[in-house]
Every structure is written in C-alpha cells, then in structure tokens.
Amino acid sequence: MADKIDHSLIKTDLYDAVNGEWLKTATIPGDHSTTGGFTDLSDNIEKTLMADFKELLAGNLKPDNDEMNEFKQFYQLVSDFDKREKDGSAPLKPYLDRIEALNSYQDLSDQLADWILTGLPTPFSLDIDSDMKDSTKYALFASGPRLFLPDKTYYEKDNQAAKQLMPVLQKMMTALFQQAGYEEAQAKAIIENATAFDKLIAPHVKSAEEGADYSKMYNPRSLDQIADSTEKLDLRTAIKSLVHGTPEKIIATEPAYFDALNDLLTDDHFQMMKSWLLFKTVMGLSGYLTEEQRQTSTTYSRAMSGRKEARSQQKAAYDLATGVFDQVVGDYYGRKYFGEAAKQDVHDMVVKMINVYKKRLANNTWLGKTTREKAILKLDKLGIQVGYPDKIDPLYSKFRVTAANDGGSVLSNLMTFTRIRNEDDFSRWNQPVDRTRWEMSAATVNAYFHPFYNIIVFPAAILQTPFYSLKQSSSKNFGGIGAVIAHEISHAFDNNGSLFNENGSLNNWWTEADNAHFHKLAEKMVKEFDGLPYAGQKVNGKLTVSENIADGGGLSCALEAAKGEPDADLNAFFLNWAKIWRQKATPEREQLLLSIDVHAPAKLRANVQVQNLDDFFTTFNVQPGDKMYRAPENRVKIW
Length: 639
Description:
metalloendopeptidase activity, metal ion binding, protease, single chain
C-alpha cells in the first residue's frame, strides 16, 4: 500500500507530512516501547526466524552446521518451560552462595580472576579492545561498573525520573530476592545496602555525555598504578592471571573512578559492596529461571521504557537463544534471506558512496592539502563489511550444550558460555587485531563504524525496504540505505572518528588550523540541536553531536550520489529519508533516550538535517516564512 503523503504540509513539517497518516493509526505493541522504522524490520525478521526455528525444533529443518545444531539444543532447553518451573531458583543458588560466603575483601581477592571469568559482578570492569594508540594489537581496558539507574545524572538531587524509577526498582528487587528464597526483611536490608553503595559509585563514573567524548577515553596507566587503586583487592595477580601475561599499560577510560576506588573499597563499606554484588547477580540472572521470576525481572526495564507487558514466553525463549548464538543465527539469516547478489550490490553502493566522499574531500575548501590527503587515505583504507561474515566466529564451535537429561539448566549453560566468551576475550590481549571480525549479528537491524578498526559494517537485516531494495528507485535507495551508508562513513570524520587515523590509531593527523575550523563547525551542529524541545524535555546538543555530524554528512553525500544517477528524483529521495525515521515511542522511552542516547530523536533527525541542504528548499519550493525554512547563513555544512 502506497503511503499517503500530505504534500502541502512539507513546508511546515517534512516528518509529519510523510508519516502523519501512519502516526494516526500506528499502535505500539504491549511488549514494545516503539513501533515503526527499525522496529518493524526487526519484528518481521523475528516472525520469519521464529517460524523457521519452529521447524528446526520439530526436526523438519536440518541444521546446516555443528554450531546450528548446538543452537537447536539450546533453543530446546530454553523452550522447556516445565523444566524451568521444576528447577525453580536452584540454578541461581550456587552463585548466591558464593557471594554469601565472602567474609572479607580477602575472600574475594583470593578468587578474583576466576570470579571475573565466571561472569560475577565486580566493582570495576575489565575488557579487551584494540589499543587506541596502536590499532594492530589488542589492549586491556579498565572502567567503572554500570549503575543501577540509567545514568549518573539520575543521582543528582531532585531528579524526577529517579524519584519515579527507584521505588519500582526496589519493589522489583524485593520480590526477586524473596523468589530466590530470602526473607522480606533480609531482602530489604540487602537492597538498602546495595543502593547506598551504588550512590557512592555514581559521582566517580562518567555520564553519557562525558562518555560520548572519545578524546578523553585514552588514559594509559601502568599495571602498578591500576593495582595501587585499591589495597583491598589484588588486581595485579588477577589481571596477570586473566591475560596470561604482564601488561605494561592498561587503558583507564574512567581514571577518576580508579582514583576513588581506595575510598570506595573500605572495611566500613564491605557489607554494602557485598549487598551490591548480590543485588547485581539477582537482577542479572533471575530472568533465566521460572516464569514468575522472568516476568518480575522485567518490571524495572518496562517502567524505564514504557512497555506495558513482558515478552511472551515463546518470544523470550527466542530472544535468549538467538542472543547467545547471535553470529550463528546471523549466518543462517544472511545466507538464506540476503544472499550473494544483494551483498555485491550493496558493496558496490558503499564503494560508490566512498567515491562521492573522496571527490568532496578533494574539492573541500576549508581543509588544508595535507589534512585532505590524510582523509582520503583514511577512506582508501576503510574496511567494508556487508551482509554477513564469510565464516562463523570460531568462538561458537566451543559452545557445547549440557542437556536437561545430563543435569543442564538454562542458567548453568548460560554461565558456561559466559566463561568461554570471557576466556576468549582475555586471550586476545596483546594479540594482533582481527579487522575482519564482526561484532554484530547479520540479523540485527543496525549498522556501525568502528573508529579503532576503521571499518564500516552493514548487517543484512537493515538492507531491506524502505532502506534498500533491488526493486526501489535509486533515489529512494540513496535516501534510505545510501544515507545510512554515508552516515557510517561520516563517522570516520565526526568529532570522535576524526581523532583516529587510517589504521584506527588515536593520532592527530589534522593541522592546527584545520582542527580549529572543524571544531567551529562542530559547535554549530551542537547549537543547531541544543535545547530543541522534545517530549517535554530538551535535546542535549553535546551528547548528540557526533551522530548529528554523521547524519549531516551522510545525507549530503547520499544526495550528491542520487543526483549523479540517470533516474534522479529528489522528491523521492527526501520523502524516503523522512520515512526511514518513522517512529512512535512511549513517553518514558523518549525521555530516557533524551538523557542517555547519543542520537537525536528520530523526528528531529528527519527534519533538521534536510534544512541544511539547499536542494531541499528548491525541491519543495520552501520559502522564508515557511516553518521548514532556514536562512542560508544558518545552514550547517561540514562534510
């Protein structure tokens, strides 16, 4: 069915003109916080794969490989709801007992490496990624833990969202602790202690806005410095054991947190920390137990996002199984529903967009010659991953399911896989970086640029209507997937991506004058969005600047590519751009995202960026006095 578009409204509000009729009738499913755009594509994939996997479980569909066979065994186990009811909280008990057995920091310190590999919570976080200064090798990163509330700003005095969320969280946790076998009074004491410790942590970790600035991520510290952050835990021995070596440096993304660690881990705080470990464990693992525990464990996330109900049993089983075997499922989906022809076509489109970008850089008037040449070199070295990986990550060949008959439960299998995954991650330390490795399943409706690897990735799932189709006109495709492709390329030159060179190493390849000019332009993009009213709050221009720069550059380059095609139709280009951002969301979700999401709200992404393009005004004859009009001197043009 063709969309009904109110052309008279385009000059007032492009997004509403394209999506207004849809918005009137669209309803958000009870187990969702959004509908439209990306969500619809995800729902369709879910429907397709759930039907396929029903056949797989029934034995009518044969697994293509060993990994798919293990996925089948795990899916069978998570779908055995009777067994989950029979098991009750028993699978969780060994982990709670292990925490309850701690009588001092020394008890935790003695088993710290094993504790981390098991996947139990710790008051700090360690992980492996490409060394930001030497992208050929993997390095060890250290950061603070995740807070109970969505962001540290929620811990500020008089934060209204926190006042609504904290009671919901405490009520949910009281119920989960009781379901796990604790007395109510006991549960309440643990929760009080845990939330007190969480409040102590909050001032020392980064907010979403602070975390969005990659220039402040690279804070190398020696092993001794990290180890000396606390006298209560032997971090030195744990780290050496985890990576099977002695790191000369550890990259602290939140140095202020490690400066505060000694004051957080004191004898006075031990009981609080222990309660915090119990709280995190119960909160994180209860969803894999009985139906009552699974339903209860979603209460808090539902309150945050405005979802009215938990996912059905069947959908939750699907989510869990496909989440654990995400690359295996991605391989199946990509090969069956996307295929080599579309893979090649999109790859060609990406190359075309890169060439448009190169041409624009070559003709750029505000960049100096050396910076321009370096930027073009970065594009020449840009890794392109489209559709699905050539092979399944070898990690999944290590996943072996222990069936119910052999004493396996959902949780015991999950924790086994967690350990295998953690061991695999830490084994990468100091090894050469694998730029061909995918971090997202091919069945995920998304795309990304990774500055540490200088790669762009477009999973098969996003490469469908309205974003892309071999049956759509070129202008529609460029207004959809073309703009998304160029958006990801633009990330290589946003305020974060521009800090990294052609190999993905943190390296200032800009001249001082070019850098100053770029930051002036970036500041214009901050101002363009900062303070825009939305969902009863205001957009944070600093938090969203990198995504807005990428949107601006992406849309502008996609437009140039569309104009270069023989069947160019700018009307169709702009209308499809507005259509891909179609979304209806609960007020709770909109408000949450305004606090923590690096993307601007979908409607503003659709409307604001077109106002920076001269062709928008001529295509729809938008004149001064029209709401969508923006004076030429106020149009932000970066790439």
